[in-house]
Amino acid sequence: MVYLDHAATTSVRPEALAAMTEEFGRLGNASSLHGAGRAARRVVEEAREDVAWALGASPNEVVFTAGGTEADNLAVKGLYWARSGADPRRRRVLVSAVEHHAVLDPARWLADRQGAVVEELPVDARGAVRPQDLRAAIERDPGDVALVSVMWANNEVGTVQPVAALAEVAAEFGVPMHTDAVQAVGALPVDFSAHGGLAALTVSAHKLGGPVGAGALVLARGVDPVPVLHGGGQERDVRSGTLTVPLLRGFAAAVRPAVAERAEHAERLRGLREELVRAVHKAVPDAVLNGDPQERLPGNAHLAFPGCEGDALLMLLDAQGIACSTGSACSAGVARPSHVLLAMGADTDTALGSLRFSLGRDSAPEDVEALGAAIGPAVERARAAHGTRRR
Ligand code: PLP
Predict the structure, then answer these.
(1) How far is the CA of 29 from the centre of ligand 1 (A)?
(2) Is 290 close to ligand 1, i.e. is its CB under 6 Å away?
(3) What are phi and psi of 219, to 5 degrees?
(4) CB 96 within 8 A of CB 109
(5) Helix, strand or coil for residue 100?
(6) Is residue 201 within 8 Å of residue 176, measured between CB atoms?
(7) In testing the pocket of ligand 1, which one of 5, 12, 72, 100 has its CB within 8 Å of the most ligand atoms?
(8) Which atom of ligand 1 is nearest the CA belonging to 215?
(9) Are residues 2 and 323 in contact, defined by beta-carbon separation less than 8 angstroms?
(10) How far is the CA of 285 from the centre of ligand 1 (A)?
(11) Which of 24, 10, 59, 13 is nearest to 256 (CA)?
């Protein structure tokens, strides 16, 4: 298979697999007081140190979760409950219009069920939030803002947000800012401590060579979200639940090399991505690269194919053994245009006719060559089918 969908998930690194395999053979609940429990606890604390090192955080700022979705929910709901609980005037939740659904949907749920007022910050044509727009939104009434959430890098079009500038604005008004860095860690330099204004940051293991089902929310000192999960009081009572020791060890075993090799890896992916875009343009001259040409994830190429339905094109490529993705979610067989592209000002046809190719650790020049050979005929067939349907 030619796998061009690393933004969806990555293969588990061999060192992470070996670490998890060993750990799955052991017995021990990290909350138990006996020797086996203490050994499991040591594994968790070592993993916490590794994850903290990788993110430029302190170990006591890392709260383990079962992945990115859970960490995002904890950040958005937990910070909202804490802030509005302390001052009922704080009801506004500012999120960018291009967030992942793991941020957008909890925010909308808070609006539907809990009286929150959600404002979506607009983005420019490249998908970036302008710091002045955040400033204007907060200045309208700094006293009623509960939190801000803007992702580090977009999972669809790959645009990198001006996180430092946004965090500075939020800090100036004393508003906690969360950032979903799921796509950024291992691809871009992510240093939590360098952004004094950041209150919370989400990371997920399976996007960087670790297992599905492990992640973390980094919380700056003094930031205390109300828990979403209540129970045994693990993770400083912020996130109850028996810790998944083997997965956390796998997470740590993956995140260390992913971050240590990041610069070299990113350089290679950037070159390969440029190759990919060139190959697609050669076969389909009117394909358009969406997002920011420079400020984007190194492995991300998101392209619009005028006159095509993205889903149809995806299936034609899949038949050739090439795996990629559309941003549009399919519900009841009807493709919905990507909210990210619509927020960037794209028309519905572009939003429905785009594909994401995402490169990763396993990607090689042969993958790009295979796509270059397959994309021209696939686009031709998708255009013919689309034209027939329209007539
Ligand atoms: N946030 C972003 C930006 C993502 O790309 C994803 C995964 O697609 C998530 C959150 C959800 O993470 P997880 O799959 O670990 O729940």
Answers:
(1) 27
(2) no
(3) -125, 125
(4) no
(5) coil
(6) no
(7) 100
(8) 15
(9) yes
(10) 32
(11) 13
Query: Of ligand 1's atoms, which has the minimum distance to the CA of residue 69?
Result: 16
Q: How many angstroms is it from 182 CA to the middle of ligand 1?
A: 6
Atom 5 (ligand 1): residue with closest C-alpha? 155
Q: Per-residue pLDDT tens, the chain, 391 aa: give them.
A: 999 999 999 999 999 999 999 999 999 999 999 999 999 999 999 999 999 999 999 999 999 999 999 999 999 999 999 999 999 999 999 999 999 999 999 999 999 999 999 999 999 999 999 999 999 999 999 999 999 999 999 999 999 999 999 999 999 999 999 999 999 999 999 999 988 789 999 999 999 999 999 999 999 999 999 999 999 999 999 999 999 999 999 999 999 999 999 999 999 999 999 999 999 999 999 999 999 999 999 999 999 999 999 999 999 999 999 999 997 666 556 678 899 999 999 999 899 999 999 999 999 999 999 999 999 999 999 999 987 665 5
Tokens read off for 313: 């094109």
Q: Which residues are marked as active site?
A: 330
End-to-end CA distance of the chain: 35
CB 6 within 8 A of CB 13: no
d(Cα 111, Cα 115) in Å, to the nearest integer? 5
Ordered structural domains, the chain, with CATH: 2-9+262-390 (3.90.1150.10), 14-260 (3.40.640.10)
pTM, rounded to two decimals: 0.97
- Residue 190 · residue 56 · CB < 8 Å: yes
Answer yes or no: is the C-beta of 204 below 6 A from any ligand 1 atom: yes
> Would you say the CB of residue 215 lies under 6 angstroms from ligand 1?
yes
CA–CA separation, 58 and 36 (whole Å): 26
The C-alpha R_g of the chain, in whole angstroms, comes to 21
Q: For a pocket test of ligand 1, which of 201, 207, 296, 302 has the largest count of ligand atoms closer than 8 A to its C-beta?
A: 207
User: What token pair was written down for 261?
Assistant: 């090799």
Q: How many angstroms separate the alpha carbon of residue 102 from the centre of ligand 1?
A: 7
The vertex-119 CA angle with 118 and 121, nearest 5°, equals: 145
Torsions phi, psi for 137 (to 5 deg): -65, -45
69 lines ligand 1 (CB under 6 A): yes
For the chain, helix (H) and strand (E) counts, in that order, are 12, 14
